[in-house]
Design a protein that fits this description.
CATH superfamily of the largest domain: Bira Bifunctional Protein, Domain 2
Structural class: alpha+beta
Number of helices: 17
CATH topology of the largest domain: BirA Bifunctional Protein, domain 2
Oligomer: single chain
Shape: elongated
Radius of gyration: 28 Å
Number of strands: 16
Length: 416
Amino acid sequence: MAFKSIRGTKDILPPETARWHYVESVVREVFHRFNYKEIRTPIFEQTALFARSIGELTDIVGKEMYTFTDRSDDSITLRPEGTASVIRAYIQNNLGEAQPLVKVYYIGPMFRQERPQAGRLRQFHQFGAEAIGSLQPEVDAEIIAMTIQIYKELSLAKYALKISSVGCEKCRPHFKEILQNELRKIAAKLSPDSQRRIEENPMRVLDSKDENDATLTAKMPVITDHLCAECARHFESLKKYLTSFHIPYTVDGRLVRGLDYYTKTAFELTSAELGSQDALAGGGRYDLLTQELGGKATPGVGFAAGIERLMMVLEKKGFEPAADIRPALFIASADAESRAWSVATTIDLRSEGIAVEADFLARSLKAQMREADRQQAKFVLVVGQRELGSGRAILKNMKTGEQNEIPLDEIRKQLS
RNA sequence: GUGGCCAUAGUUCAGUUGGUUAGAACGCCAGGUUGUGGCCCUGGAGGCCGUGGGUUCAAGUCCCACUGGCCACCCCA
């Protein structure tokens, strides 16, 4: 084969694009109902934006970014996630000056150079939302409720919501020290991966998939027991809201997010139907990010969800939306002269807003009927010399098989 | 980045201990119906057997490398 798509990238082809249209329309509709407005940022940014927001030491920045130098010798990176760009746009365009709470959402591709596997691609798609400007736990609750609502409206039932608080600049460093001290005591018994993580990211040791590690760390302290008064109050309030929203959740003090910028609330939605990469969506609060990126100190909360993973679950359920593009009418023609008429009429009707298809292969009537069937056309109009002469033709309802002779100039009326 | 499995028509797959013209189903095209879809019947087109090298009289089949896919680790959406 001459050219192939880049490893870890995929073509999304017609029957499947209908599913994407459906999912995107549901997602947009829910966002709009929650009064979030769409923001579209460039898919590439200065490398430093991601390095500073996501964190130099994270895997994403350390080894997964698509980074290159452009012809002006600037370091450019394809966005690995959405929040950094949104906050950059928020600061750059002074969005906070027009209103105190800015609520935006995005849908689009993200890029990470990882080894592809089930539910993991190098170009993948996310939808997500950010609420920038409020410290209130009500906003955290709204974001979570909105996330859940989207999955509900897609008739997805089998997921689990895990929530936690990762603390703030006051309580997290404290806890990190306590945990590291505990972990160092048993370091020798831990897996090599976990030993490395003790210094790099101790919270992740608690999340290890290694059975032995899990046993050894079962009684280790968790952050949710070591929050400062303010973080604890915030977390309690969030839990109350979720309960009042009738949203079931489990508190998982070991929940870790892959990005450094999170403070207080962290949450994750997982699906048991996904295999190893089971996170459907994740998010949390990032009260320090805006000032870290050079803006006025402004709190924020957000989430992001993987569209391909959502598709995997929908496919597993056998979900198949009705074809979103199908002609209202197919004009079948019996000969060259009527074909000319049918093409001209097709263009006319289309300009009037009617979805029409005709024969463009000069095929037999039978083949045209087959084509109309394949396209799931609602009606077929059969025209030939006779019809052009008499001004009346047969209109066939493809679902019922019913045929009626109608005057050609009444075709618009018949279709409406 | 590491590991395991895999790579044959458009698609999903068969292909005996290496042995003549590589098969099926579905899909596609045409005919059965000289102006009518779906079901049925008949016929047809369509394969450098992932790429490169090696072993052999002989390779889709065995060996090696590469590329790609799948799955897992890592990490995450």
